[in-house]
Amino acid sequence: MTKYILKRIFYLLLTLLIIASITFFMMKGLPGTPYTNQAKMSPAQLTMMNHKYGFDKPLYVQYFIYMGNLLHGDLGTSFQFNNQPVTQLIGDHIGPSMQLGLQAMIVGTVLGIILGSIAAIRKNSWVDATATIVSILGLSIPSFVLAILLQYYLGYKWQLFPVALWHGFSYSILPTLALAAFPLASIARYMRTEMVDVLHSDYIELAKAKGDTSRQVIIKHAIRNSLIPIITVIGPMAVSIMTGSMVVESIFSIPGIGNQFVQSILTNDYPTIMGLTIFYSVLMVSIILIVDILYGIIDPRIRLGKGGKA
Amino acid sequence: MKFFRHHKLISVALVGAAALTLAGLINPAHAADGGDKKTLSVSAKAPINTMDSSLNTDAYGAQSLNNTMEGLYRFTGQKLEPAVAKSIAKPTNDGKRYTIDLKKTKWSNGDPVTANDFVYAWRRIVDPKTASQYSYIYSGIKNADAITAGKKKPDQLGIKALGPYKLQIDLDHPIPFFDTLMSSSQFYPLNQKVVEKLGDQYGLASKGMVFNGPYKLQNWKVGDTEWTDVKNTSYWNAKNVKLNKVKYYTISDPNTGLNLYDTNVLDRYQNLNGDTARQLANSKDFSTDPANSTYYLELNQKKIPALKNAKLRQAMSLTINRNDLSNIILGKTGIPAHSLVPSKMSKNPQTGKDFVKTDQAMADRKYTAYNPTLAKKLWQEGMKETGQKELNLTFTADNTDTTKKLAEYLQNNMEKDLPGLKMTISSVPFKTRLQREASGEFDMATSAWSADYPDPTNFLDLATTGNPQNNGKWSNKGFDEQEKAATSTNANNPTARWQNMQNAQHILTQEQGIIPMYQDTTASLTKPDVRGFNITPTGQYDMAAVYKK
Questions:
Q1: DSSP-assigned letters across all residues of A19-83
Q2: Which CATH architecture has domain A93-266?
């Protein structure tokens, strides 16, 4: 198991290095400069500024300087926000994004499990059909469209929740619901499929024969065993929530990291683009690593390679 | 399988949903100011990037600096008034020296605002070590150009303190718009003790900063999407500041802004554009203020020599119905521009007449009036003179929704009215467009300029031969001579200078060296009880004068 985890961590670091390198060169290929007043600056002033920030150095030199700083945990300072360290910028904005992401994951997972379970238990009934429709809608409506609809009806028209901004828990409800729709729908579909299979398995029949009540059978055996494949989808779902949150944060005027990422791209804020890309990458590969390790624990065949003995 | 109706999970879900709803009801959408007549809630299009007046480059930062800081002079609406200075000083030494007495004013921490605060701030911004993107605005202050180029030391700048409340400013040459320049945030004073204490963190958070303007910025750090200005009781004119608080909220989504305005969270929703503005143009709360910025077309005469022919340029200009462009395409968020110089920016010092409404300027509108018949005639003549049967142009434009529509409108009109013209639109991001223009990789492009200071030369200079911003490479000796006279020979003679600038404008408009399209405006929704939002010639609002009825 230790060897397996070390191997996964090595691949994680290699992936991060490749991502950082590709992003660096792609970013340098962006047109224009990061100077907000570029249109009004004289050529002499541009030359002076480029010298100050090291943009007049060969590209490979700039790359090695950046990577060297990165190894020391230095992501540089933002261009958009003069002299603000990128690490501090991330620290200042990560709170709302994390809160939204976690809330969406919890709401999506819990409700998805419930919906999927009910649909499986009441297979081929109107309840199942309704759950299917809800799932299809959740999967097909983009989070930003849902965000606009929720904001308009629940926020503006019926005034049940704040329209936007970020002044406490109640302000997080609508964006959470907008972000939770996709994981809710995905998990509900997985859960239903898996639980239908589980409910027809021998050990369920055995449990019934032993005199367990319906409730005991469902909770002790069916739901528990159906949850295993859900771990597989949690990783990609977390990623989709992170990317979806960029637009949702913008719609609800939430001071999160997603909103900042969009702004940094629009302003050619090189250090912030790099810093946030690396940050997102670390988050994503970490999630994938955790999922892999969990899977390795759950199913030993995975860490031993295909066809290996448990 | 029996469906169990009382499953714990369902109960948990229902309780959770109820709790969420209850939380929302306990904290419903609220009016941000709670109906308080002394608090105003305003939208902002972008967060403040810095509160360091030496480093700020954008309008949002400039507005925030204008709310909280103050230089020698200040615009109250359209009127320039003394601020830290006792009076508007008259120059001596052939217009090259200003000796200015200062009022005894205070920073928000109680420190006096002294002449040294100006000396320190000015030297700091021109110092190459500061790497200010706006240091060029000091051009004309004695030795500024040499200092920014690294050839002289910052302490050689033409500013010195003759005493704690007396300032002497020397110029390389007279600057006719010196007074208005002094109201810009780049010329504000800085409290040396505070700046040096905070070091490179100065301007990144309100904590530790001091202010000498009508308001103080509170509980702000860079990147915040909301911030609050509170009344500065140390301000010398605090008795005339009517509001106690101005709350700003960064709103990037137009639907969100509209919903917040309609639910009374915002008293004013600013910077409307595109479809939102079009939909709201007839609302009673809708208003626009002209901004000192002009959107225009540049034709690359170096790359496409045929465009050196004035008739071709004139013809292209005559195909543009500027009223339709402003009303239909821009949703009334633009004003038809007949000159590169924007309207309502500069007036004749003697008569008070708007620079773009003089008899000469009005007569020159024949070069920018919608006249497809004349356009076709001129085009055919021009094509004959340049020996061409057809002309294929790539039109480089920003990839924003509004600019895309504008580009399609121009393409449609020009191809329809100008036989043999084929236009291909290339929609690119803003920075790409800038780069292509600077490197000359374009045939025809949209461009824009916003004033650093409200003087016609700030725009007319763009078209002078050799100006880095003259991307189309239009060149006219007569125009250059008039511009040079306006900025040097006649700098101390307002009447002659005015005439030089009028002549320059006439030549540029007649030649259509740059084709003006529209003047930008700031479109807003404002609640009926909010008063005093008067735009200044520098494009900011004097928030000290805003109040609620």
A1: HHHHHHHHHHTSSS-S-TTGGG--HHHHHHHHHHHTTTS-HHHHHHHHHHHHHTT---B-TTTTT
A2: Orthogonal Bundle (1.10)
Buried b (16+ CB within 10 A) or exposed e, B157-181: bbbebeeebebbbbbeebbbbbbbb
| Nearest-CA distance A295 → chain B (Å) | 26
Confidence category of residue A234, pLDDT binned at 50, 70, 90: confident
The percent of residues above 70 in pLDDT, for chain A, comes to 95
Contacts of B250 in chain A (CB under 8 A): 253
Give the confidence band of A46 by pLDDT, cuts at 50, 70, 90. confident
Q: With H, G, I as helix, E, B as strand and everything else as coil, classify residue A106.
A: helix
Q: Which helix (H) or strand (E) is B163 found in, with range?
A: strand B159-163
Mutation site, B12, B258, B259, interface A, largest A CB count within 10 A:
B259
Q: What is the pLDDT of residue B7?
A: 47
Q: How far is B464 from chain A (nearest CA, A)?
A: 14
Please, which pLDDT band fits residue B2 given cuts at 50, 70 and 90? Answer: very low
Contact, B283 vs B269, CB < 8 A? Answer: no
- CB-closest option in A33, A127, A173 to B23: A173
Task: Name A239's Cβ contacts closer than 8 Å, sequence gap at least 6.
Answer: A284, A287
DSSP B200: G
Q: Which helix (H) or strand (E) holds B425?
A: strand B421-428
Under an 8 A CB cutoff, do B435 and A218 touch? no
Tens digit of pLDDT for each residue in B298-336? 999 999 999 999 999 999 999 999 999 998 888 888 999
Structure tokens at B150: 């690294």
Residue type at B84 in one-letter notation? V
Identity at B529, one-letter amino acid code: D
B224: tokens are: 């915040």
Least confident span in A295-304, B152-161, B405-414: A295-304
**Which residues in chain B touch residue A165, judged by CB atoms under 8 angstroms apart?**
226, 249, 260, 265
Question: Which chain A residues are within 8 Å of B27, Cβ to Cβ?
Answer: 162, 167-171
d(CA B171, CA B194): 28
Distance from CA of B177 to the nearest CA of A (A): 18
Q: Which residue in this structure is represented by tokens 């959107």?
A: B295
The Cβ of residue A60 has, within 10 Å, a number of other Cβ atoms equal to 9
pLDDT(A18) > 50: yes
Chain B residues with CB under 8 Å of A81 CB are 49-50, 204, 222-223
Lowest mean pLDDT segment, chosen from A287-296, B258-267, B525-534: A287-296
Band (pLDDT 50/70/90 cuts) for residue B22 is very low
